[in-house]
Amino acid sequence: MRSDPNTRSPLTLKIAAAAGLLFMHLPILLIFVYAFTTEEKSYQWPPPGFTLRWLEVTWNRADVWQALWLSVRVAAVSTAGALVLGTLCAAAVSRSKFFGRESISLLVILPIALPGIITGIALRSAFNLADIPFSFWTIVLGHATFCIVVVYNNAVARFRRTSGNLIEASMDLGANGFQTLRYVLMPNIATALLAGGMLAFALSFDEVIVTTFTAGQQATLPIWMLEELVRPRQRPVTNVVAMVVVLVTFLPILAAYYLTKGGDNLAAREK
Amino acid sequence: MSTANAAILPPRSGPSGAASDAFWRHPTLLLFLLLTPPLLWLGIVYLGSLLALLAQSFFSIDHFTGRIDYSFTLDTYRELFTTPANIDIIVRTVLMAASVTIASAIIAFPIAYYAARYARGKWKALFYLGVMLPLWSSYLVKIYAWKLILAQEGILNWIFHKLHLYWLMDAYLSLPVIGGHSLSISYTGTFLVFVYIWLPYMILPLQASLERVPDNLLEASSDLGAKPSETFWNVIFPLALPGAIAGSIFTFSLTLGDYIVPGVIGSSRYFIGQVVYAQQGTAGNIPLAAAFTIVPMVIMGFYLWMAKRMGAFDAL
Amino acid sequence: MTSAVSFINVSRHYGEIRAVDGLDLEIREGEFFALLGPSGSGKTTSLRLIAGFERPTTGHIEIFGERAEGIPPYRRNVNTVFQDYALFPHLSVIDNVAYGLKMKGVSKNERRATAEEMLELVKLPGYGDRSPAKLSGGQRQRVALARALVNKPKVLLLDEPLGALDLKLREQMQEELKDLQKRLGITFVFVTHDQGEALSMADRIAVFDSGRIRQVGTPEDIYRKPRSRFVADFVGSSNVLPPEFTERVAGERCWSSLRPEAVRLVKSGGHEATLVSSSYLGSQYRCVFDVGGREINALIPAGAKLPAEGDEVRISWNKSDLHLMEDEA
C-alpha cells in the first residue's frame, strides 16, 4: 500500500475519517429536523410530528426581526470598517519593508488570537473608564476590531500573489498612482476583498462572546439565541432561528470559497 | 520637440496628478497615510482597552461599599492566588483544555491524514468544505445542537434505549467526576461540546503539515524495511507534530477562555471564563475579573513560547 | 549624436549593499545597447533606474538631455518589457496592448486600431481577444513587446527578454528584435547575462561587475580587446594569462588574454607544449595544451592531423592576438 499511496487507503483509516466527518456534520443536520417538530415543550426525539407552523410563528416575531436587523446592521458596518482598515494595513505591509512590520501583523491578529473574553472585558472596562454608554457603535467598535484580521489575511495573500511587477508595468505604461489603483490593483484584489468581506460579515453576524460585553441591553441575534440557550422559553422559535442562522452563514462561506479557490486564506478564523 | 515626443512628459493637471507625483517622490508619506488609520484604531481601541484592563487588575474593590479603589495594589492578585476555590477553577480549566486538545488531535488525525494523502480532486474539495463549513457555522447553533442531542429526552438517550444499552449509559454516569446526573450536566458533556466546536481548528493545521510530507519519504521508509506502524511512529508522527501543536494552540486557548459552553452544558462548577464573566457582571468586581483574565494570557504566552520552540509556527 | 540615456555618477545603495556604484554611461540615440553581467552585478538595477522604478542614491540620470530626477515612471517616455512579462491577468491581450493609450486618454476606437497594428507588428494578428494565461511563453513575450511599444517610447527597456524561452525560439526572437529595432529606430536597452546574446544583438555593450561598469564597447572590442581579467573571463572563452606568463611569452608584465582560435600548431618556433586533451567538435578540435605548467585552450581546425594526447608539440600565435590588458581586476 505504501508503494501506491494515492489510490488505496487502509479501511480503518477510511472509517475513522468518515466517522470524524459525520461527527462534525450530524449535529448541524439535527438542527434542520428540529425546526419542523410539533413538540414545543421539550427536545423530544424522535419528533412526534411534522409542522411548518413554527416558520410562520417565527416570521411574525418582532423581537427576532429586531435582533436580526441589529445583527445585520452591526455586521454590515463592522465589515465596511474592517474592509477599509484591513486593506490599508495589508497594502502597507506588502508594499514595503519598514521597521516594525512584523509587529503590525501581530497586532492585527491579536484581537482574534487572544480568547474572546479578554477582548470583550477589555473593551468593556475601557468603556467604563471612559464613561462611554453602550450603543450600536460600541458593538461595532468591538466587531470591526476582530474582523480586520479576516480582511487583512485575505488581502495580504492576494497582494503576495499579485506580482509587484504588475504595478510597475502599469506605471511604466503611463498610469499614475490612482489610475494604477483603479485599473490594475482593484481588479486584481477585488475578489479577495469580497471574500474577506463575506467572512468578516459571517464572523460578526455570529459573534457572541465579545458582544455580550459591548452590547449592554441591546440584543443581536446571537445574544437572543444565547438567552434562549440559558433560559429556554420558546424552543420552537429557537429551533427555527438556529436553522436560519446556519443557512445564512453557509452562503457567504461557500461564496468566499469559490472566490478564493486559488489558495487564499479561508482557514484563518478563531474565536 | 512636441510634447507627444518628449522624453519627459509634463505633470498631469489636477489634484490627483499632483498627489500621485507627491506619493511617488515620498513613499514614506504614502506608507504613513496607509498605516495611520488601522494603527490608530488598533492602538487606541484595542491596545488601549487591553492596557485599561491590565491597569484595572492593579486596583482593588472595597468589599463593604462595592466601589473600586483606584490606587495601585497587588491585593487583587493576592486574593486570586490565595483563595483555594480560584486555584481549583484554574486547575479545572487547564485540565479541561488539555483533555479537549488531546481528544481533538486523536479525532482530527485520520481526517487530516486522509484529506492530505488520499483525497484527490473532487474529494479533496469535499473534505475541505467538510471541515470549513462546521468551522464557520454558528458557534451558538453548534452548542444548541448539542443541547438537543444530550437532552434527557434527546436523540442520544433514545439511541441507547433502542439498542438496549441504557445500562451502559447508567454505568458511565455513575462514574465519579466525569459522570453526573445526566450527560448534559456533566463534565463529559462540556468536554464533548468543546471537542466538537474546536475540532476543525485542529484538523486544518494538521492537514497542512501532513501535506508537506513528501510521498517519497514514506516510500523511502518502507523501502528501508519499515513496517507501516514503524513508518507512522518514526516518520509521519514527528513530521505531523508541529501541525498538531499549532492546532493545539487554538483548541487550548479557545477552551481556556470560553464561558458559554460550560454555562449551557455542564455541571455548575465554574471555569475561568465564567468567573471572569460573573465577577465583572453580577459581582461587579472588575479588578478581580481583570486579574483572572491575566491567567489565560500568561498560560497562553507560555504555551506559545513552547510551541514556537517546537517549530509549530511554520505549520500555521 | 545625441545621447538617449546618460548616467551621471549614479549610485544606488541598499544599506551596505552597493547595487550600482558610481556609474557613468552614455547610451546613444538609436542604439541597440546591452547591459551584460552576472546576476547581482547591477545591470537590472541600472535598467530600473532608467525606468524610474528605483531612485539613485547619488548622481542623476538624463533622458534625451532632460533630467529625470523626481520624475515618476509614468511621466518618462520610456517603456519596459519585463522579465516575467507582467501582463495584466485580468485584461485580454488587446486591452493589455492598449493599456498605455487608455491611460493617455486615447479614444476607444483609436486605441483598438493602434493596438491591432501593434499586434500585427509582433506577428500576433487576431490574438486580441484571448486571455494572456492562454498564450505560450513566446506569444506572451510578443504581447509584452507590443504593449511596451504602443506608446512609441523614446527608449525601450528589455529585462532579460529572452531568458524564459527555449533555445530555438530564442534565436528566432533575437533576429526579430534586431529587425524590429532597425525598423522602428527606437533606442533599445536590454539586460542579459548571456554573453552570446549580447555579442550577437547589441551595437554596443556595457559589461557590469559588482555595481560598476568594467568596459563599454562594440561587441568586437569587448571580445577581442577585453580591458580586464573579469571581462575576458566573462565574455567568451579566452585564455586569461597571468603577468608572469605574459612576461615569459611577450616580454611585458601584465595580464593578457588569448582567444582559443588564435592558437595554432607549428613545426618550429613558438612555444613548447604538451597536448593534454582534445575533443572533436565537427569543424574543429578543442584542445588543451600545457605550456610550462600553464593550460591553454585552443581551437584547431579539423582536417590537419592532430597529435596524440601526451605528445610534445609546438604552438604559436600572432603577436597581435595576445591582447595585453590595462586593468588588474
From TrEMBL, chain A:
Compartment(s): Cell membrane
Any GO BP annotation: transmembrane transport
SUPFAM superfamilies named in the record: MetI-like
Membrane topology field: Multi-pass membrane protein
Keyword list, A-Z: Cell membrane, Membrane, Transmembrane, Transmembrane helix, Transport
Bilayer-spanning residue ranges: 12-36, 67-92, 104-122, 134-152, 183-202, 208-226, 238-259
Family as reported in the entry's similarity comment: Belongs to the binding-protein-dependent transport system permease family. CysTW subfamily.
Gene Ontology CC annotations of this record: plasma membrane
Any single Pfam family the record assigns to this protein: BPD_transp_1
Name used for this protein in its record: Inner membrane ABC transporter permease protein YdcV
Domain ABC transmembrane type-1 per the UniProt entry, residue ranges: 68-256
UniProtKB/TrEMBL annotation, chain B:
Domain (ABC transmembrane type-1) ranges: 90-305
A GO biological-process term: transmembrane transport
Mode of membrane association: Multi-pass membrane protein
GO cellular component, one term: plasma membrane
Compartments (UniProt record): Cell membrane
UniProt keywords, alphabetically: Cell membrane, Membrane, Transmembrane, Transmembrane helix, Transport
Transmembrane segments: 29-55, 89-114, 126-146, 185-204, 232-252, 286-306
SUPFAM superfamilies: MetI-like (SSF161098)
Family: Belongs to the binding-protein-dependent transport system permease family. CysTW subfamily.
Protein name as it appears in the record: Inner membrane ABC transporter permease protein YdcU
Native source organism of the sequence: Methyloligella halotolerans
TrEMBL record, chain C:
PROSITE patterns named in the record: ABC_TRANSPORTER_1, ABC_TRANSPORTER_2
Official protein name in the record: Spermidine/putrescine import ATP-binding protein PotA
The keyword Iron-sulfur appears for this protein: no
GO MF, one annotated term: ATP binding
Family: Belongs to the ABC transporter superfamily.
Stored Pfam families: ABC_tran, TOBE_2
InterPro entries: AAA+_ATPase (IPR003593), ABC_SmlMolc_Importer (IPR050093), ABC_transporter-like_ATP-bd (IPR003439), ABC_transporter-like_CS (IPR017871), Mo/tungstate-bd_C_term_dom (IPR008995), P-loop_NTPase (IPR027417), PotA_ATP-bd (IPR017879), Transp-assoc_OB_typ2 (IPR013611)
EC top class named in words: hydrolase
Residue span(s) of domain ABC transporter: 5-235
Keywords: ATP-binding, Cell membrane, Hydrolase, Membrane, Nucleotide-binding, Translocase, Transport
E.C. number(s) listed in UniProt: 3.6.3.31
Annotated GO CC locations: ATP-binding cassette (ABC) transporter complex
Species of origin: Methyloligella halotolerans
PANTHER family tied to this protein: SPERMIDINE/PUTRESCINE IMPORT ATP-BINDING PROTEIN POTA (PTHR42781), SPERMIDINE_PUTRESCINE IMPORT ATP-BINDING PROTEIN POTA (PTHR42781:SF4)
SUPFAM superfamilies given in the database record: MOP-like, P-loop containing nucleoside triphosphate hydrolases
Transmembrane regions listed in the UniProt entry: none
Top-rank lineage group of the source organism: Bacteria
